[in-house]
C-alpha cells in the first residue's frame, strides 16, 4: 500500500495496531474494496465520510474478533476450499418449524449429524415485523435475533456447537429491503431526511411509472406493482416484493456501510456463510428490469472484501434466481473473478430436474447445462431440488428452441403438470402467482410434486415406489453434480404438503407455505424402517451422502458436463476434478432403459460394485447393455 494511502487510513489502522494478519489482509484486499466503491460512489458527496465510517466498522470488527474465530480465519485462509469438499452436505430449515427455538436446534444436532450434514442454513432468524413478514424476510433489527427464536447469545452458542460438530452455519442477510417497521423507515416517516435517503421514495407517480414500464413483478398476484404509497410518509416507496418490504437505496453509500456492519455482526457471533438474499435487485436503473445491473457486482465485490479483511472465515452465498446467462456472474466473472460469491444456488439445474421428471426427456436439461458458462475458479454451486420458495420455470426460448420445444408451451405444460391438472400427472402442487398467459410458478414439497401424496392417497404400492424413486433420482443428480448439495427440511423423510398451511390467515394468500410444513418428528421416528416412505427416503439419502465421500471428482472446483447416453430418458453427466472422473447415469423413466456399455468405455469409467451403492439396486447387464431399472442411477468411477 502506498504510504499516503496508509497515512490517510492511519486512524483505522491504529485500532488494530499489532494485528499483523489484519494489516496484511487490509493491504491485500484494499483495492478490491476501494475500487468498486469508488466506481459506484466516487461522485457522491456522502462518500468520503461513509468510507471513513466503513473503515472504522471494519477495523472495530477485526479488533474485537473472538480468538476462536481468528483461529478459524487462519485455518480457512489456508484451506480456501473448506466449503467445496466432496464430503459437504447441506441442510436448510426454519428454526421454529424444525425445533421451536435456537436452543431447540442445538438439541437436534444429533439428528443432523446422523444424516451426515456439514452445513446448516437456518432460514431468516433476525428480528422481524409481526406476520405477515414473508417468512422473516422483513427485518426490523439486523443486530438482534427474533425474540420468539432466542437471542444473539443463543445464536453464538449454536454456532459454537455446530463448529464443534464439524458443521458450518449459514444465515440470511436481507440486503435489498428492510421491514416498513425498521427504525430507519420509522425515522424516515418522522421526517428524518438522512434515514429517508436510505430508501427509494418518490413524491409522485412520474418516476415509478417510468420504471414500471420495464420492471417485472415478483408477486403480481399478492403485491402488484413495484411501488407502494405510504400515507404516513406521503410518498411512493419502492417495494419490489411485498408492500411492507421497503427497498434500500444502495446508491446511498451510507446504506452500504450499514449493511456491511450487519454482515460483520453476524460474522462476530460465528456465522460461517452469509446468504445474500435477493442479490440481483440491489441496483435500479431506469429502462431496465432492475436486476443483475453491473453495479450489483461492484457492490458484492466490495462486501466480499469487507468480510475478507475483517472475518475471512466467512463465505458468501448468492441467492440469484435468474436466467442461466446471468447466474454465473454471481460467482465472480470478468473483472470480478475470484472476488464475489463462493456459492450460488444452481436454480437452473433445479428447475430442469423438475422439467425432466415431468417430460421424462433429458434433452432440455442436458442442452441448458451444456450451454452455461463454466464456474470461475475458486467458486462452486449449491445444488438443490427444493427450497422454501416456489419453482419459477426459468427456461429460455433459446434453450427450449434448441431441443425443438416452445418455451412458453413447455412452461405452461409444467405449470399444469405440477398443479396436478395435466392428464396423467402424478404431482400435487399448486400454482404460485399465476399469470394471464397460463404460466405460473409452482409450490409443493418435493415428495408431493414427485407423486407421493397422490400415490399414498390411492394406496397404490407401485406408484408409491415410483414416487420415492423419482424423489431419489432428482436428489441423486443434485448430489452427484458436484458442489454443495442441500437437503430441504423434511425431504429426508419425504414429507408431503402441509394440509393446514392455509389456516393461518397471514399465510393464506401465499401457496409457498404449503411446502413449509412443521417438522414431523413422529415421521422422523420411522426413519429406521425402510418399509415406510420416511425410512426409504432417509436410507436413500444416507446412501447419497456416503457416496459423495471418497469421490474427489465431486469436489466443488470440478467441472460437470452432460454427455450423450443414446437414450432420451437417461441423463449422462460427467464430472471431472484433479484427474478424477465420474459418470452419472440417471434414468428418468418408469420403464427399464438399456444403455450401451460402450458409453462407459467412451468416458473411461467402469460400473464396479461402488457404482450401484448410491441407488442400492443391483446392476443388470444384458449383452452389451447395462439395463437401468425405473429411475435407477449409477455412479461410474474412472
Ligand atoms: C428471496 C427469498 C424469498 C423472499 C424474497 C424477498 O427470494 O428466498 O423467500 O420472498 O427474497 O426477501
* DSSP helical segment count: 26
What is the 3D shape? globular
| CATH superfamily heading of the largest domain | Glycosidases
The counted number of beta strands is 24
Q: Output the CATH topology of the largest domain.
A: TIM Barrel
Q: How many independent structural domains?
A: 2
Q: Distance N terminus to C terminus?
A: 47 Å
Spatial order of the strands forming the largest sheet = 1-2-5-11-12-13-14-17
Structural class: alpha/beta
Q: What is the CATH class designation of the largest domain?
A: Alpha Beta
Compact description:
This protein has 638 residues and is α/β, with parallel strands linked by helices. It contains 26 helices and 24 strands. It has 2 domains: 1-176 and 248-345, Alpha-Beta Barrel (TIM Barrel), CATH 3.20.20; 346-637, TIM Barrel (Alpha-Beta Barrel).
Description:
This protein has 638 residues and is of the alpha/beta class. It has two domains: 1-176 and 248-345, TIM Barrel (Alpha-Beta Barrel); 346-637, TIM Barrel (Alpha-Beta Barrel), CATH 3.20.20.80. The strands form seven sheets. An eight-stranded parallel barrel has the order 1-2-5-11-12-13-14-17, surrounded by four helices. It has a four-stranded antiparallel beta sheet with strand order 18-19-20-24. A hairpin with a 4-residue loop joins strand 8 and strand 9 (235-238). Helix 4 packs parallel to helix 14, helix 13 (253-268) packs across helix 14 (294-310) and helix 16 (347-359) packs antiparallel against helix 17. The protein starts with a helix and ends with a strand. The mean pLDDT is 96. The site of alpha-D-glucopyranose has 10 residues, from loops.
Amino acid at each position: 500500500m502506498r504510504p499516503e494511502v496508509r497515512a490517510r487510513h492511519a486512524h483505522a489502522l491504529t485500532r488494530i495496531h499489532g494485528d499483523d494478519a489484519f494489516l496484511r489482509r487490509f493491504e491485500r484486499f484494499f483495492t478490491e474494496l476501494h475500487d468498486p466503491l469508488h466506481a459506484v460512489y466516487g461522485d457522491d458527496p456522502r462518500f468520503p465520510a461513509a468510507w471513513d465510517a466503513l473503515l472504522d466498522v471494519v477495523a472495530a470488527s477485526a479488533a474485537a474478533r473472538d480468538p476462536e474465530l481468528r483461529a478459524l480465519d487462519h485455518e480457512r485462509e489456508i484451506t480456501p476450499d473448506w466449503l467445496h469438499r466432496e464430503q459437504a452436505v447441506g441442510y436448510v430449515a426454519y428454526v421454529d418449524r424444525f425445533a421451536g427455538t435456537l436452543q431447540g436446534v442445538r438439541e437436534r444436532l444429533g439428528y443432523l449429524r446422523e444424516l451426515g450434514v456439514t452445513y446448516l442454513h437456518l432460514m431468516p432468524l433476525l428480528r422481524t415485523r409481526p406476520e405477515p413478514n414473508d417468512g422473516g424476510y422483513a427485518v426490523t433489527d439486523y443486530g438482534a435475533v427474533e425474540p420468539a427464536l432466542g437471542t444473539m447469545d443463543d445464536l453464538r452458542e449454536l454456532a459454537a456447537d455446530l463448529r464443534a460438530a464439524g458443521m458450518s452455519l449459514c444465515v440470511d442477510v436481507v440486503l435489498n429491503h428492510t421491514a416498513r417497521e425498521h427504525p430507519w423507515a420509522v425515522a424516515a416517516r418522522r421526517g428524518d431526511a438522512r434515514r429517508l435517503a436510505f430508501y427509494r421514495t418518490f413524491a409522485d407517480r412520474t418516476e415509478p411509472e417510468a420504471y414500471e414500464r420495464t420492471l417485472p413483478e415478483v408477486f403480481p398476484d399478492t403485491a402488484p406493482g413495484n411501488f407502494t404509497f405510504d400515507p404516513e410518509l406521503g410518498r411512493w416507496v419502492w417495494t419490489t416484493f411485498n408492500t411492507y418490504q421497503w427497498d434500500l437505496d444502495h446508491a446511498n453509500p451510507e446504506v452500504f456501510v450499514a449493511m456491511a456492519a450487519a454482515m460483520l455482526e453476524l460474522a462476530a457471533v460465528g456465522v460461517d456463510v452469509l446468504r445474500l438474499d435477493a442479490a440481483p435487485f440491489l441496483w435500479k436503473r431506469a429502462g431496465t428490469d432492475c436486476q443483475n445491473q453491473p453495479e450489483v457486482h461492484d457492490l458484492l465485490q466490495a462486501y466480499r472484501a469487507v468480510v475478507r479483511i475483517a472475518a475471512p472465515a466467512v463465505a458468501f452465498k448468492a441467492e440469484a434466481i435468474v436466467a442461466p446467462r446471468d447466474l454465473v456472474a454471481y460467482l465472480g466473472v470478468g473483472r470480478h473473478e475470484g472476488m464475489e460469491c463462493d456459492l450460488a444456488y444452481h436454480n437452473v439445474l433445479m428447475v430442469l430436474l423438475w422439467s425432466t421428471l415431468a417430460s421424462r426427456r433429458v434433452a432440455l436439461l442436458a442442452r441448458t447445462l451444456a450451454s452455461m458458462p463454466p464456474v470461475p475458479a475458486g467458486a462452486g454451486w449449491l445444488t438443490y431440488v427444493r427450497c422454501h420458495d416456489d419453482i419459477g420455470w426459468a427456461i429460455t426460448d433459446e434453450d427450449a428452441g434448441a431441443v425443438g420445444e416452445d418455451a412458453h408451451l413447455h412452461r405452461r405444460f409444467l405449470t399444469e403438470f405440477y398443479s396436478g391438472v395435466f392428464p396423467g400427472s402424478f404431482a400435487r402442487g399448486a400454482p404460485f402467482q399465476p399469470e394471464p398467459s397460463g404460466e405460473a410458478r409452482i409450490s409443493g414439497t418435493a415428495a408431493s410434486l414427485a407423486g407421493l401424496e397422490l400415490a399414498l392417497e390411492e394406496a397404490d404400492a407401485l406408484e408409491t415406489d415410483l414416487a420415492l424413486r423419482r424423489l431419489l433420482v432428482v436428489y441423486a443428480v443434485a448430489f452427484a453434480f458436484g458442489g454443495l448439495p442441500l437437503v430441504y427440511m423434511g425431504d429426508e423423510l419425504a414429507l408431503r404438503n402441509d394440509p393446514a398451511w392455509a389456516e393461518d390467515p397471514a399465510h393464506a394468500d401465499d401457496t409457498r407455505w404449503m411446502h413449509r410444513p412443521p417438522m414431523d418428528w413422529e415421521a422422523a421416528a420411522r426413519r429406521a424402517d425402510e418399509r415406510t416412505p420416511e425410512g426409504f427416503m432417509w436410507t436413500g439419502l444416507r446412501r447419497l451422502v456416503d457416496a459423495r465421500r471418497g469421490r474427489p471428482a465431486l469436489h466443488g472446483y470440478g467441472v460437470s458436463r452432460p454427455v450423450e447416453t443414446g437414450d432420451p430418458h437417461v441423463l449422462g453427466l460427467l464430472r471431472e476434478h484433479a484427474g478424477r472422473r465420474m459418470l452419472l447415469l440417471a434414468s428418468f423413466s418408469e420403464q427399464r432403459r438399456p444403455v450401451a456399455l460402450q458409453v462407459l468405455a467412451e468416458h473411461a469409467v467402469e460400473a464396479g460394485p461402488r457404482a450401484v451403492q448410491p441407488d442400492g439396486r443391483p446392476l443388470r447387464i444384458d449383452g452389451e447393455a447395462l439395463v437401468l431399472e425405473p429411475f435407477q442411477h449409477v455412479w461410474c468411477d474412472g
